[in-house]
Amino acid sequence: MAPGNPKSMALILLFSIALLFSVTTAARKKTHSIKECVKLVFDPPPVAPTFWKRTLCRDLLRTNVKSFQITGDLSQEYLTALKKLPRFNNNPAGLNNFLCGLGPAKEAAMKLGC
Q: pTM of whole model > 0.90?
């Protein structure tokens, strides 16, 4: 397909719409998605999930972490899901070390005692 070809442009547009639809659909169920993604990334199931699910989950969590690094505010859904993980359950020091390792904003780092 040559550049500027209407068929190739239509295919690119169709692919872009499909990708946008899948991302917005995943974002609609944000709370459920964050909990599910935290489990998927930090406590993977025995059966590997699909490539797209892993990719969308990593992007969703990466967005939350990037926001935390800039603003110092971590979404409550993400924090709650982290606290329920076996490695952080009843281990506030481990959770605190993990959060400090994310490189939070200065104000959040002071709150956490980093």
A: no
